[in-house]
Write a structure and sequence with these properties.
Helices cover 48% and strands 20% of the residues. With 147 residues, the chain is an alpha+beta fold. Strands 3-2-1-4 form a four-stranded mixed sheet.
Length: 147
């Protein structure tokens, strides 16, 4: 009888520990946003995700200026950056957002040549927004993205 109680206790403890571990990785349904705490070169980057049934179903990654204009829409900026870096905001923001959606987390997302500074910001914002989604906290979190 004592052996059976010991086995039951071990199984219950294992079940409780397994439940605690998985709870940390489960994303709560809702919308979550992480935003750079400060403007960098006139732009403030942000990422917004939508989680449904525990999975990321939508990702928006971009930047806006003080008037709310979206960086990916700035054609002059796009042309200037493309000639110098070989990429531009509309390309790299879609790439990073698509990778997060595909991989369902920050692991395995590679930097895009010419957008490594934004990659660093993206990684910091992604970590913060995923933490918000794990907690189910839909308030906007401000992130220090300075390199």
């Amino acid at each position: 009888m004592r052996k059976i109680r010991h086995i039951i206790l071990v199984l219950l403890t294992a079940g409780i520990l397994a439940g605690c571990g998985s709870e940390e990785t489960v994303l709560q349904d809702g919308y979550y946003t992480a935003q750079a705490a400060e403007y960098s070169h006139g732009w403030k980057e942000y990422i917004t995700i939508m989680v449904k049934d525990g999975s990321i179903v939508s990702v928006e990654y971009n930047a806006e200026n003080a008037s709310g204009f979206i960086k990916s829409w700035d054609n002059a900026y796009m042309q200037a950056m493309f000639h110098v870096q070989g990429t531009y905001p509309n390309e790299y923001t879609r790439y990073y957002a698509g990778q997060l959606l595909e991989k369902q987390g920050e692991e395995g997302i590679d930097a895009l040549t010419g957008a490594t500074s934004s990659y660093g910001s993206f990684r910091k914002l992604t970590a913060a927004v995923l933490e918000q989604a794990r907690k189910g906290d839909s308030s906007i979190v401000l992130v220090d993205t300075a390199n």
